[in-house]
Design brief:
alpha/beta, single chain, 2 domains, Nucleotidyltransferase, domain 5, five-stranded mixed sheet, about 180 residues, 8 strands
Length: about 180
Amino acid sequence: MPAEPILMAIETSCDETAAAVVTSGFDVRSSVVASQASLHARWGGVVPEVASREHLAAVIGTVSAAMSEAEVEPDDLTAVAVTIGPGLPGSLGVGISAAKALALGWDRPLVGVNHLEGHLFSAELDGGRVEYPALYLLVSGGHCLLALARDRGEYQMLGSTRDDSVGEAYDTQSRLSLSPSSAWV
């Protein structure tokens, strides 16, 4: 086991397959993303079954690329972290299954990560620091919330959306940003 904790982090909650090698000090040693945006553009939004199949094709290569970029081997890792929700069930299933297999094969613990909490903690990557108490406004597709964080991991929900209207607005804006010839194909 390495002296400094190092995680392999896998994210497949929607339409991007992502893998990163991150240290305990939130230092991002590598981050590789396989985007599906151009694939889903023809439908004007994410098609869940298509997203799941694309994750299957991309997840192992994305993990390999992240490890290569960070210059780490499985023996250098302390654990495998993976997004466990919320997200598209099929997409999450691909990431969770891959992470379980890697953790088992590498004899490393598996750590489940809440997708929304991951967004909150992303403010601390690569040296950023959040001073507590903090007020978080999280706008992410169908999951929009306002929360008071008294300390890391101690949240008081102040409000949230009741539908996915913000996500729909993001999808609409994406369609409008595309060239007219590809937006409605």
